[in-house]
Amino acid sequence: SYELTQPPSVSVSPGQTAKITCSGDALPKQYAYWYQQKPGQAPVMVIYKDNERPSGIPERFSGSSSGTTVTLTISRVQAEDEADYYCQSADSSDTYKVFGGGTKLTVL
Amino acid sequence: EVQLVESGGGLVQPGRSLRLSCAVSGFTFDDYALHWVRQAPGKGLEWVSGISWNSGMIGYADSVKGRFTISRDNAKKSLYLEMNSLRTEDTALYFCAKDISLTLDGFEMWGQGTMVTVSS
Q1: What does the alpha-carbon distance between residue A93 and residue B89 come to, in Å, rounded to a whole number?
Q2: pLDDT in tens, A33-54
């Protein structure tokens, strides 16, 4: 079965830049999406189609893609950005939607 | 305001069935695909199933294929998940999610979820 690989955790100081990666063999062919989930809350889409930002999401959130890796970048990190972040995409035949294992972002 | 409200969760014994519903408001229901995504306690997100705007495209995760059936009623603006032969590993919070498009892409908006517990 197809898998997306994320680092379990990333730590960053306030005001710094956080980068969360997601790797998968089908990422050159399939769009990636990113979700933020805070404890006890439903996920929120923060990036769609690799690098598009939904309305209402701060410009500090951006996405990029290079080969089999996509990256979520959060600039000028704030305490409120502390959350779990999940990437999501599809397998090469677009049969299955898949989530990465999630990355816990800690703001020091 | 877009709202997705799930219902139908509860405690059920292994091998039994349960039907989840998701009532939607705030957008043109039949312009978007819809999905079910679940999250086991303390675990990550798992896509369960998705259905396109006209039910022409339907997909299931391997873990539920043959046991779960997704459907939608565009007239009632509702999404459903019929879950049969439930297993303890199906225990999770089940979210209803609106896609960004007519077909199966990404999950733009989410409900708050309904909890399903499978236990004897």
Answers
A1: 27
A2: 999 999 999 999 999 999 999 9
Q: Are A46 and A89 in contact (CB under 8 A)?
A: no
Tokens at A104, concatenated: 């816990």
User: Which residues make Cβ contacts (< 8 Å) with residue A93, sequence separation at least 6?
Assistant: none
A2/B contact by beta carbon, under 8 A: no
- The type of residue at A2 is Y
The single-letter DSSP state of residue B99 is E
Contact between chains at A88 and B45 (C-beta distance less than 8 A): yes
Closest residue by Cα to residue A4 from A25, A34, A28: A25
CB contact under 8 A, B59 and A97: yes
| B105 Cβ under 8 Å from any chain A Cβ | yes
Question: What is the least distance, in Å, from the CA of A96 to any CA of chain B?
Answer: 6
Q: How confident is the model at residue B103 (pLDDT cuts 50, 70, 90)?
A: confident
